[in-house]
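Form 7-S
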Amino acid sequence: MVLGLIVASGAAHAAEHVTLTNGFDLICDHQSSQGDRVRLYMDSGSTNFVELNVGEIASSEHVDLPVAASKGATAHTNNAKLTEAELHQLLASAGSVHDLDVDLLASVVRQESGGNPRAVSRAGAQGLMQLMPGTAADLGVANTFVPGDNISGGTAYLDSLLRRYRDNLALALAAYNAGPAAVDRWHGIPPYRETRAYVARVIHEFNRRVAARQTASAAH
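Output:
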């Protein structure tokens, strides 16, 4: 279903949708076999790849991704590889607009996509902050695989959830993962193992980053 939604706009770029045995999905430009290893290339070049065991890949299928130029301050296309500095800059920019800590956003990105701009979940969530197509459309994000646009949309969504739950970070993160309806239904963090683990991991990573930042600041 999600693949049909991806195809729906303009010119297309051929790619592959790979599902891993651990349940994680990603989009790669192409792949090649190296004995019992498989390299998944993130772009058309030969240096940006992820290498896995053959047994780690559950399935692979061809998809067509929309080719869309980014606009405004976003300088990356859906084929771009982000450096840590570039990712930090995009997160800091979005965080300043919504007054959200850059380390909180970085923690969400780490848990959502591992920093892969082309990540796709089994549920159909896409990009760095794993936006569902419907949510992305509501946020005005035309192409979820453009890093800056995805981060801007995801940050705006997280900000709206924090306001909805009166800055209760745990509830906002639970809603980001499971949806506001689930949080409202259970009047708190839903009793879903995935959601509870998600909230714990993001908060743990956020605390770790803040502590490291404070330690580095004290050293100077």
